[in-house]
Amino acid sequence: MSPSASTDFVFMAMDPALGWLGALVIVIALSLTSRINVGLLAIALAWAVGGWPGNLKPGAVLAAFPSSLFLTLLGVTLLFGAAEKNGTLGALTGGFVGVFGGIAALMPVAFYLLASVVSAMGPGAIAATALVAPIAMVTGGAARVPPVLMALMVANGANAGALSPFSAVGVIVQTQFEKAGLPVSSWQIFLPNFVAHTLVAVVAYGMFGGLKLSRKPAAPAGGSRPTLGRPHVRTLLVLVAWIAAVMFGGLHLGLAAFAATVVLILTGTAEEAGALKSVPWPVILMVCGVSLLVEVGQATGGVELFTRLLAGLASPSTASGVMALVTGIISTYSSTSGVVYPAFLPAVPGLVAQMGGGNPLEIALSINVGAALVDVSPLSTLGALCIAAAAPLGADPKAMFRVMLIWGFSMAGVGAVFCQLFIGWFI
User: Fold this and answer.
1) Cα separation of 198 and 375, whole Å?
2) Is residue 3 part of a domain?
3) Distance, CA of 236 to CA of 231 (rounded, Å)
4) 358 within a domain of the structure (yes/no)
């Protein structure tokens, strides 16, 4: 190697933008291929890249930590962890099922709506699926609803509600939009994702036997459904007050959630230990770790380099569809909220600048939709939870896995077409 080539190599190796891009590639690659929490890795790499001599000082790396996002996620998940542990969400779910009178044809619709509502209330898609899927599979089995249909309805429903302004995932996305300087309302973020998942659920209902289901009440499923007691009513009142205070009083979502949780604990309505144990610490660590790495990338020029590379994949006229496809493929194997959203949404303004045009809101909303639609795959937590809930009831897990895997992969293309053609309607 010549001296000049050696010098160039050393320069490239120490260039903070290239170093950050390499770190991002490592994080995405390991999120696809290993079981390590990439939040841990992202924090270490953020320190290594940002703290490299000549780059940022360690104090600047520490200051880049997304403390507001951390407190918001912790507060929201703590509050709904308390509501789940004291049985409120379970009782609410059981009561909801009875509204539809046990009619088989309505069961998939009922559980789609239920998963969507529970997810939108705050827990997010994973927690909503974990709560609703077991009840849905038992009830659907008694009504002879095909397990794949019920799984797709629950998973799509949970994802449909996931970007509400009260959901933990919605908080993540809203934060990224604000950091990127994209002027959009929280409900504008929610709506295209909800519409896309609803349309997909309608297609799934027709394809997997929903139209052939009986219109007569089915035999009741085994086991008794939990009923609402005084602690559950008190919890619901606190939740309603929290939502009203945030929506109409302008209170901070996360900090108000801490206050609501304290009320539940001090009144004996919820247990502190149970609420703390229910907090999804690995998810919070992953989201905040990757967000820290992205913040360091903003300061070192890495995000600008990343957007130049993305700009080579699309033009202003095709950016919405291309970005939905790219993020959908990555999200099939990686975490949507923990990796895809924090890595791609901050790059949108730079991407538009590099392409010389395009609507940043359309591209950002396309990333939301494209990354989420594929999450019904059994490679994702949502799909896996549904298969696990159905297997003990006699469903063929291998057959479900195959069908849901094909469906999940196909959603990358569906998301790209939907965003390319229709995302502009929501601006």
Assistant:
1) 14
2) no
3) 9
4) yes
Kindly report, residue by residue over 346-380, the tens digit of the pLDDT. 889 988 988 888 899 999 999 999 999 999 888 77
Distance CA 193, CA 163 (A): 7
Report angle CA 318, 323, 324 to the nearest 5 degrees: 105
CB of 382 closer than 8 Å to CB of 348? no
Distance linking the first and last C-alpha atoms of the chain? 54
8 is a domain residue: no
Nearest one of 408, 234, 421 to 321, comparing CA atoms = 421
Write the DSSP symbol of residue 105. Answer: G
Query: Count of H helices and E strands in the chain?
Result: 22, 0
103 forms beta bridges with 217
For residue 427, which amino acid is it?
A: I
Total number of domains constituting the chain: 1
pLDDT per residue over 382-416, tens digit each? 888 888 788 767 778 888 888 888 999 899 999 99
For residue 65, the SS3 value is coil
Let me know if residue 175 belongs to a domain: yes
Range of the domain at 317: 14-63+88-225+280-426
| Structural contact between residues 75 and 253, judged by C-beta atoms closer than 8 angstroms | yes
130/382 Cα distance (integer angstroms): 8
The pTM for the full model equals 0.76
Alpha helices in 143-280, H assignment, sequence order: 147-160, 168-179, 186-207, 230-249, 253-266, 272-277
